[in-house]
Automatic annotation (TrEMBL):
<keyword id="KW-1133">Transmembrane helix</keyword>
<dbReference type="InterPro" id="IPR032816">
    <property type="entry name" value="VTT_dom"/>
</dbReference>
<feature type="transmembrane region" description="Helical">
    <location>
        <begin position="52"/>
        <end position="78"/>
    </location>
</feature>
<feature type="transmembrane region" description="Helical">
    <location>
        <begin position="105"/>
        <end position="123"/>
    </location>
</feature>
<protein>
    <recommendedName>
        <fullName>VTT domain-containing protein</fullName>
    </recommendedName>
</protein>
<feature type="domain" description="VTT">
    <location>
        <begin position="37"/>
        <end position="155"/>
    </location>
</feature>
<dbReference type="Pfam" id="PF09335">
    <property type="entry name" value="VTT_dom"/>
</dbReference>
<keyword id="KW-0472">Membrane</keyword>
<dbReference type="InterPro" id="IPR051311">
    <property type="entry name" value="DedA_domain"/>
</dbReference>
<feature type="transmembrane region" description="Helical">
    <location>
        <begin position="135"/>
        <end position="159"/>
    </location>
</feature>
<feature type="transmembrane region" description="Helical">
    <location>
        <begin position="171"/>
        <end position="189"/>
    </location>
</feature>
<keyword id="KW-0812">Transmembrane</keyword>
<dbReference type="GO" id="GO:0005886">
    <property type="term" value="C:plasma membrane"/>
</dbReference>
Length: 192
């Protein structure tokens, strides 16, 4: 079953509309959606390594624009939209105490969340809610998301065939590691 799902994802990754789907996923992941764009980006690059830089650029641009939506949710709609999203992630109670501390970290908080598996949407919403300067938020988001997506693209472009062989031979292990990383990210959100 996993092999069939993997083969289907690889076939869809080379579809002409795949970039649009990646852009949509990267956009909504930055503000409300729990699944990272890497799930699409990685098979897209493995299926067509020549397009690695374009794929990374689309993921970066859409993610930063989606991050601005998250920022707007925090700044303009925190009570009606932002608070329920953050409460669902286990962060509802600690918001007031976090406000001052967050803005002191500002640049580093956005940079860390933009690069790591930590859910980026939490930081985008918090940036708007705490009133982080929009310019700082945008520049840091561009830097962080570029580092993350272009590093993945570079590694897959350079080592694509061995990575693809590894995934195809050890798909169960790769899926398990992905789930562990995803659950670990949500665990960090809930308990940090």
């Amino acid at each position: 079953m996993l092999k069939r799902l993997y083969d289907r994802t690889m076939a869809l990754a080379d579809h002409p509309q795949a970039l649009w789907v990646l852009a949509i996923v990267a956009f909504v992941e930055s503000s409300v959606f729990p699944i990272p764009p890497d799930v699409l980006m990685i098979p897209m690059i493995l299926a067509n390594p020549r397009r690695a830089w374009l794929i990374a650029l689309v993921a970066t641009a859409a993610s930063v624009i989606g991050g601005m939506l998250g920022y707007a949710i925090g700044a303009l709609f925190y009570d009606s939209i932002g608070e329920p999203i953050l409460a669902a992630l286990g962060k509802g109670d600690a918001m007031a105490a976090f406000n001052t501390k967050f803005n002191d970290l500002g640049f580093w908080a956005v940079l860390t969340a933009g690069i790591t598996p930590f859910p980026y949407k939490v930081i985008t919403i918090m940036s708007g809610w705490t009133g982080m300067p929009l310019g700082t938020f945008i520049v840091t988001s561009i830097l962080a998301r570029s580092l993350r997506f272009f590093l993945v693209a570079a590694l897959l472009r350079q080592f694509g065939a061995p990575v693809r062989d590894f995934i195809e031979k050890r798909l169960g292990l790769v899926l398990t590691l992905f789930v562990v990383i995803l659950v670990g990210g949500f665990y960090l959100v809930k308990f940090l």
